[in-house]
Amino acid sequence: TQLLEQSPQFLSIQEGENLTVYCNSSSVFSSLQWYRQEPGEGPVLLVTVVTGGEVKKLKRLTFQFGDARKDSSLHITAAQPGDTGLYLCAGASLSGGFKTIFGAGTRLFVKA
Amino acid sequence: DTEVTQTPKHLVMGMTNKKSLKCEQHMGHRAMYWYKQKAKKPPELMFVYSYEKLSINESVPSRFSPECPNSSLLNLHLHALQPEDSALYLCASSQLDRGNTEAFFGQGTRLTVV
Q1: Position A97 confidence tier, pLDDT thresholds 50, 70, 90
Q2: What's the CA gap between A8 and A23, in Å, rounded?
Q3: Distant-in-sequence, close-in-space partners of A20: CB < 8 Å, separation ≥ 6
Q4: What is residue A94's predicted lDDT score, i.e. its pLDDT?
Q5: CA distances (Å), A110 to each of A19, A104, B29, in order?
Q6: Measured between CA atoms, how close is B106 to chain A, in angstroms?
Q7: Does A17 lie at the interface with B, CB-CB under 8 angstroms?
Q8: A66 CB-side CA count, 13 A
């Protein structure tokens, strides 16, 4: 069974603080995606990481893919209230075909 | 255009009703998906279509019946649902590329079964 373990599940921080969300698995993934979801809306794709060791930056967000392609992290610098939302990692393992699975999600709340 | 369009946005139906959810994408993606999401949970995969053929059914009850009329459209036919089927139903699409499985999601249909 392929699982994506995401941590922490909930995070409440002050504006301006930094944070890191982790996504770990025992399976190897061809790629991993990070999404952000607002209540009642569909997940919005933030980034896809494909190459082991890859680092991608999206403004104040930094995404990293582990060398072995089993884990990923999302780091937010100087969080703002607009960053509040549910962050989901997702991927299809090399043995899973096109069956994309999701981590449990990290619910982030940034207080002004 | 990276848009996946779902209709309707909201749906209330009785347990004896028959209704359909619709999804459309024009990105040329050949994989399309249905997910179900309950409150405070991540999306759960229901069905995957590859080249308009059903390739994955995650043991979904037969009261949910998917259909892929062509490469741009995906439907989910609903019949005799239960109140516990109330959820956000998400459609997604992706390229059929094992190296990159990024999926683009629609806004979802909020379904309430009464």
Answers
A1: low
A2: 9
A3: A73, A74, A75, A76
A4: 65
A5: 10, 19, 36
A6: 6
A7: no
A8: 14
